[in-house]
Design a protein that fits this description.
Strand content: 15-25%
Oligomer: single chain
Structural class: alpha/beta
Low-confidence stretches: none
Helix content: 25-40%
CATH topology of the largest domain: Alpha-D-Glucose-1,6-Bisphosphate, Chain A, domain 3
CATH architecture of the largest domain: 3-Layer(aba) Sandwich
Shape: globular
CATH class of the largest domain: Alpha Beta
Strand order of the largest sheet: 1-5-4-2-3-6
Number of helices: 14
CATH superfamily of the largest domain: Alpha-D-Glucose-1,6-Bisphosphate, subunit A, domain 3
Radius of gyration: 22 Å
Length: about 450
C-alpha cells in the first residue's frame, strides 16, 4: 500500500482497517519514523492477540531496528504492560500493537515516549505521520536488535499488587471475563501472586483463553448487547462480583452480585475514596462528561477534584501537572500516579475488592446511595450531519437557562437540579450526550427526550 496520506493516524493513536488504512509495509514505516523522530535507542514492543498483530509487531520491529534501536519485546501482553515496562526499564519509548475493542478487520498502535509520557498530538504524532508518509528516512543505523523482555511481567505484577493492602481483603468469589483477549495470561500471573501471598480471593474464569478469532465476539463490555453474558455468569456462579475486560485490558468493567452493570462514573468515585483514605487531601482528576457523583465523593473524602478534557493524553497530562494520585473517566479508563501516570485495567478491580473487604459490604450496597443521589443517562451517541451546528442549536435553547456553564470539553450546562454535557467525539463522527441529575431520575429521562428530539 502506497497511500500518500496515512489515514490510520487518529487523534491519540494509530488505528485503521487492515489492507485499507494499515498493513505491514506501513507498520515498518511507522516504526522507522517513530525511532527517528523520538531519537530512540531502546523501545518496548508488545502486541494483543489479534490474528494480524504478530505480523504487524514484527514489521514495527523491523522499522525500529533499521533506525538502530534495540527492541525490548514483551510478546503477547496488555497495553498497560508496555506502559509499565517503558518506565520500569528506562526505555526511550513504547509501542503496543492493538486494536482493543475495534472490529475484527482493524488493528492499530498505542504509543508512549520516555517515562511512558503520552506523545504530543501536534508534534510527536504529527511528525511521525509526516515522516512515515514522506519516507525521507536517514540511512539505516547499525545496532538494531530484538531482546526478549517478557520476564518484565513479574515486576509489573509486583507494581500492580503494591496498590492494594492485602491484609484488608476478605474472602471474595470474583468472576473474570477476559473476552478471549490478551487479559488471561496476565490475570493468571496476578492471581498466582495473590495466592502465594495468602490473599483469600477465589476466581471463576470465563472466555479466558486468548483467541484472535474472538469466538465469543469482540470484547467490548461497554456495549449493552455484550453485557448479559457476564451478568448471567456472575449470578450463575454465585460470585460476589464480576470483572470484564476489553481486548487489550486497559479498561475493566464491573457487575455486582445480582448481575447489574456498574456505570464507569460510579467506579471513579469508589476509587477516589480508596486513594483519599490512604492519602488525605490528594487531587483526583476526572473528565467533564458526568461529574456529580465523582465530585461529591471526592468532597466527602476531603480531596480536591480536578477536571480535565476527555481522552487519555489529557488525563495523563493533568495527573503529571497536578500530582494527582488518581484520575478516572466514565469510559472505564483509570489512571494512577504511581503507575507512571498511565491507565490500568488490572489495578481497579483489586482496589474495589479491597474496598469491599475493608467495609464488609457488597458492591451493590457501596453503590446504592450514590446511584440514587446522582442518576445518569449513560453516554448517548447521535449521528448528525454537522456536529458543530447541532451543539449550537442546543446551546441557543439551553444556555440562557443554565446556572453555570463550562467549556472544558464540549458544552457543559448545570441547571441546579440536572446537568448536561454535549461534545463531538475525538475519534468518530458522532455527537455524544450525557445527562445527570441530583436525585431526579425523571429529569434525566425528560431532558434526554427533549434534547434527542432536536437531532431527530
Amino acid at each position: 500500500m502506497t497511500n500518500a496520506s496515512l489515514t490510520c493516524f487518529k487523534a491519540y493513536d494509530i488505528r485503521g482497517r487492515l489492507g485499507h488504512d494499515l498493513d505491514e509495509g506501513i507498520a515498518t514505516r511507522i516504526g522507522r519514523a517513530y525511532a527517528e523522530v523520538l531519537g530512540t535507542r531502546r523501545v518496548v514492543l508488545g502486541r494483543d492477540i489479534r490474528a494480524s498483530s504478530q505480523a504487524l509487531a514484527d514489521a514495527v520491529a523491523e522499522g525500529l531496528m533499521a533506525a538502530g534501536a534495540e527492541v525490548l519485546d514483551l510478546g503477547l501482553c496488555g497495553t498497560e504492560e508496555v506502559y509499565f515496562a517503558t518506565g520500569h526499564l528506562g526505555a526511550d519509548g513504547g509501542i503496543c500493537v492493538t486494536a482493543s475493542h475495534n472490529p475484527m478487520d482493524y488493528n492499530g498502535m498505542k504509543m508512549v515516549r520516555a517515562g511512558s509520557a503520552p506523545l504530543d498530538a501536534a508534534t510527536g504524532l504529527a511528525a511521525i505521520k509526516a515522516l512515515a508518509e514522506q519516507q525521507t528516512f536517514a540511512a539505516p543505523k547499525p545496532g538494531g536488535r530484538i531482546t526478549d523482555a517478557s520476564a518484565t511481567r513479574a515486576a509489573y505484577v509486583d507494581r500492580v499488587l503494591s496498590f492494594v493492602d492485602l491484609t484488608a481483603l476478605r474472602p471474595l468469589h470474583i468472576l473474570i471475563n477476559a473476552g478471549n483477549g490478551a487479559a488471561g495470561p496476565t490475570f493468571d500471573a496476578i492471581a498466582a501472586a495473590l495466592a502465594a501471598r495468602g490473599a483469600p480471593l477465589r476466581f471463576t474464569r470465563l472466555h479466558h483463553d486468548p483467541d484472535g478469532s474472538f469466538p465469543n465476539g469482540i470484547p467490548n463490555p461497554l456495549l449493552s448487547e455484550n453485557q448479559p453474558v457476564t451478568a448471567q455468569a456472575v449470578v450463575a456462579a454465585g460470585a460476589d462480583m464480576a470483572v470484564a475486560f476489553d481486548g487489550d485490558f486497559d479498561r475493566c468493567f464491573f457487575f455486582d452480585h445480582q448481575g447489574a452493570f456498574v456505570p464507569g462514573e460510579y467506579v471513579v468515585g469508589l476509587l477516589a475514596e480508596t486513594f483519599l483514605a490512604k492519602e488525605p487531601g490528594a487531587a483526583i482528576v476526572h473528565d467533564p462528561r458526568v461529574i456529580l457523583a465523582t465530585q461529591a465523593a471526592v468532597a466527602a473524602a476531603g480531596g480536591r477534584a480536578v477536571m480535565a478534557r476527555t481522552g487519555h493524553a489529557f488525563l495523563k497530562q493533568a495527573l503529571r501537572d497536578t500530582g494527582a494520585v488518581y484520575g478516572g473517566e466514565m469510559s472505564a479508563h483509570h489512571y494512577f500516579r504511581d503507575f507512571f501516570a498511565c491507565d490500568s485495567g488490572m489495578i481497579p478491580w483489586l482496589l474495589v475488592a479491597e474496598l469491599m473487604g475493608r467495609t464488609d459490604q457488597p458492591l451493590a450496597t457501596l453503590l446504592a446511595d450514590r446511584r440514587a443521589a446522582f442518576p445518569s443517562s449513560g453516554e448517548i451517541n447521535f449521528r448528525v450531519p454537522d456536529v458543530k451546528a447541532a451543539i449550537a442549536r442546543v446551546e441557543s435553547l439551553y444556555a440562557p437557562r443554565a446556572q453555570t456553564r463550562d467549556d472544558t470539553d464540549g458544552l457543559s450546562l448545570d441547571f441546579g437540579t440536572w446537568r448536561m454535557n454535549l461534545r463531538g467525539s475525538n475519534t468518530e463522527p458522532l455527537l455524544r450526550l450525557n445527562v445527570e441529575s441530583r436525585a431526579r431520575p425523571d429529569l434525566v429521562d425528560q431532558s434526554v427526550a427533549e434534547i434527542s428530539a432536536l437531532f431527530a
